[in-house]
Amino acid sequence: MAPPTRLSLPFDGLRARRERERQGLTLVALADRCAEAGRRFAHTTISRWESGDFGPTAPSVKVLADALGVTVDDLCTPADEDNSNTTPASADDNDGRPS
Questions:
Q1: What is the DSSP-derived secondary structure letter of residue 93?
Q2: In the chain, which ranges are continuous DSSP H helix?
Q3: What is the pTM of this model?
Q4: Do 43 and 30 touch, CB atoms closer than 8 A?
């Protein structure tokens, strides 16, 4: 059987890290949750995913999402899109420039 290919989706390690930290989980605790969800990963592997050293395989993203209680889409949406819901300054507000 051939090894799994690397994920071509835009996995965002920063989002994964933010979610892990939001839940108050250490890398070791998240690795333990992943093992409970069906796949054992070293905490250093998860750290490298979060830092962008390399990306997880598609099945690994599913396990990671399950362990964090989020969707795969949540981990494949760039973290900087979190702020995309902000309303731009209106033209009546000095063209958005500070006064």
A1: T
A2: 13-22, 27-37, 43-51, 58-68, 72-75
A3: 0.71
A4: yes
Phi, psi of 33, deg, nearest 5: -65, -40
Distance CA 16, CA 34 (A): 13
Question: Considering only CA atoms, which of 34, 28, 40, 27 is closest in space to residue 69?
Answer: 34
pLDDT tens, residue by residue, 20-48: 999 999 999 999 999 998 899 999 999 99
| Token pair in block for residue 83 | 């702020």
The residue type of 11 is F
Q: What are phi and psi of 41, to 5 degrees?
A: -125, 145
**Which residues make Cβ contacts (< 8 Å) with residue 39, sequence separation at least 6?**
59, 60, 63
Q: How many CB atoms lie within 10 A of CB 98?
A: 6
What 8-state DSSP symbol labels residue 95? G
Beta-bridge partners for 57:
6
